[in-house]
Amino acid sequence: MADEQGKRLLIGLIDLPGSRRDALANLLTDERCAVAACDGIAALPSRVAVVVAHVEAVSSHEWARLAERLPTVVVAESRGDECLLPAVEAGLVDYLISPREHGSVLRSLLKRAAEHHQLAHEHAKARARLEELNEHLETHLALLRQDQQAGGQIQQRLLPQSGQHINGVSYEYCLSPSLYLSGDFLEYQAIDERFSLFYFADVSGHGASSAFVTVLLKLLFARAIRHWEEHTPETFGPEWLALLNRELIDSGIGKHATVMCGVMDRDTRTLHYTLGAQLPMPVLVTPDGELRELEGSGRPVGLFPDTRYPAYRVALPERFRLWLASDGVLECLPGEALEDRTRALHQRILSSEDVQGLRRGLALDGELPDDLTLMTLTGFHDG
């Protein structure tokens, strides 16, 4: 019963002075255990690990205080000792009748009591450490949440105002992050009274790292617009996606994106566009209810070096609405296969007047499983 440092275990023996206490002390003392005999709780040495207390030496009101302080085995000379019951009720770990006749049993009880007490002490330390770590974790989570909320507000300010009318076309959207920051992003603006540009992007994943990529998109788009004269309407989108592809790969951040970039020609009512694995495909709807997906395809942006992105164009009718959605919309539609969900999306588009109407028609239940962005381009309002 030596302690962790290999020292002899100190047993506190509370009993009235006399031959009974001396005999019990001799019984418990050996090369592994030492005994500190005393006649009351107050006299117990501080290094005592376990206590043997005789019922005749401790008053009834002191048992609870002793039980709270140290593991204690109560001993008595007979079962009829009326002081034994209050001791047991106070929560003392065990009791033994006629201890001098059962020395080995008493040693076993003391050993078990000391081990249980040591385990309880270690559990208490571990629990305190766990509570301390949990408090630190809660603090860091709160700081992270504040950072994410601040980042989300900044990201919202980087987006263009919804409902803008540019060169006869209305641009409307709703963007809903699954948490605070979004991997979805979009931009549109006029070059002059004839041409306007837009892109619609969905960066892989969501959260802070994906949101940082959307800032890069905005920076590179602004830079490309400043060099608009170096492009044609047909080449602007493919060349910008190629630039974005190189930047993402060279950055080594492991992010890729699906992107549609378009150039709207007001004079010819033509949309020049390119696709970087946009999913679901953009949908063009005419006033008579005709719905068709834009043709074309393209590799994701940021995955394959030296990718060349194809140029497409479509003649726009006098009245049209072009719908774009991030792939988060597919998580909000019924069906197992992609074809089933795409068909459900088309049905809802045909019955919706705007992006808010489409959003209301989706199966949204609580938290979004992914970022969700819907966008429409409606024109021509000056035709």
Question: Could you please describe the fold and organization of this structure?
Answer:
Helices cover 36% and strands 24% of the residues. It has helices at residues 19-28, 63-69, 84-89, 103-158, 208-226, 233-251, 338-350, 355-360; strands spanning 9-14, 33-38, 50-54, 72-76, 94-97, 164-166, 169-176, 184-190, 195-203, 257-265, 270-276, 283-285, 291-293, 312-315, 320-325, 372-379. Strand 12 and strand 13 form a beta hairpin.
Helices, strands, pairings?
Layout: E1 9-14, H1 19-28, E2 33-38, E3 50-54, H2 63-69, E4 72-76, H3 84-89, E5 94-97, H4 103-158, E6 164-166, E7 169-176, E8 184-190, E9 195-203, H5 208-226, H6 233-251, E10 257-265, E11 270-276, E12 283-285, E13 291-293, E14 312-315, E15 320-325, H7 338-350, H8 355-360, E16 372-379
Parallel strand pairs: 1-2, 1-3, 3-4, 4-5
Antiparallel strand pairs: 6-7, 7-16, 8-9, 9-10, 10-11, 11-14, 12-13, 12-15, 15-16
Helix pairs in contact: 4-5, 5-6
Task: Extract low-pLDDT stretches.
Answer: none
**Sheet bearing the most strands, described?**
6 strands, antiparallel
Strand content: 15-25%
How many helices does DSSP assign? 8
| CA-based gyration radius | 39 Å
H/E series, N to C? Answer: EHEEHEHEHEEEEHHEEEEEEHHE
Strand order of the largest sheet: 6-7-16-15-12-13
Question: What is the helical fraction, as a range of percent?
Answer: 25-40%
User: Which structural class do the helices and strands define?
Assistant: alpha+beta
